[in-house]
Design a protein that fits this description.
This protein is of the alpha+beta class and 414 residues long. GO terms for molecular function: ATP binding; phosphorelay sensor kinase activity; protein dimerization activity.
Amino acid sequence: MATSTNEDRWSLLGALGALDEDEPVRPRTTRDWVVDIVAFLFALAWVFLTTMEELVWQEAADAGRIYGSAWLAWADLVPGLAMSVALWWRRSKSAMLAVICVPLGLFSAASGGAALIILFTVAVHRRFPVAAALTAANAAPGLVYAWARPDPGVGYWQTVAWIVGGSVILLLWGSLLRSRRLLVRSLRDRAERAESEQQLRVAQARQLERARIAREMHDVLAHRISLLSLHAGALEIRPDAPATEVAKAAGVIRASAHQALQDLREVIGVLREPAADGDPERPQPTLADLTTLVEESRAAGTRVALELPADGGNPPDMVGRTAYRLVQEGLTNARKHAPGALVTVTVGGAPGKGLSITVRNPAPVGGGASGIPGAGTGLVGLAERATLAGGRLDHRREPGGGFTLEAWLPWPTI
């Protein structure tokens, strides 16, 4: 029989502890310590004022109305002080403390201040059904206490209205604060998750752009090395060739080797990933292919005005490819987000001064607002490409709703 009683006791404590598992308790912050100290001092002040009031009331009351003597007021100090001290555990054991307050409400007025704080904590940190049940359970003994020991200056039903109304207000106030905290926490989690996803998309866009650049450089280097092999093979087959042809072939070999080394320097540090399929990629475009790109955009319905330098020479292939990709992405963005608008593409520069590219479009035709697309991974890829080429990229939204994409790429003199 004793074993059964002990098991029932432990199961009851376990059930009370389970009520406090709704929300994890975080470490106390400075603000929490201040709030807990204020709550503790408030509970102590309640105990002191309640005890003094009971002593004064009992001394002034008739002997027949006092069921007992002043020792009842002093005895009430014990549960009042105990529950005041228990407030330091209210964040982790609020539901259990609220259950303990139920029997105390039948005879202890001094513990009422601590009970109010505990019930408010339950409403803030626990689910509404649990908070409502514990609030009702604590209000019921208060009604019995008001009937057994009525206040001489206040009627019973007025006391009942105060107890019920105060309990409802306390419950709704705490539940509202809990809902607000949960909403703020949810919004913060969403913002952090969105930021993490954005960073992941940016990193993926950079990696994909690096992989694409590396594949392009692989094709270019393979082309140049094949030229070296071809001319070297020709010299090996015809060792008695005329001196002019030998000199010409040696010049081609030297120039190709120089360009191959230059391209190799540019691709150092770029990770290469295999292409998605086994088909060879088409020859990579250069600055000379901008005219074809613009004509294709015009055929697709985009209004494009192209300005090229009259006679600026041909930049290195790496610079030309990067410029082509920048213009291509700029036209794609303009076609998607400013349909019908006139897109102006300006390319200028010279050896030693660098190559400048500007793609500008006004607001969309029809008065619609021109917005920056989605996550902006296309612009991230362009910035990565320009950086790897030794240049820089800038993009901005114009006050009138247009969009401008500007880039500068180095153009060596040799």
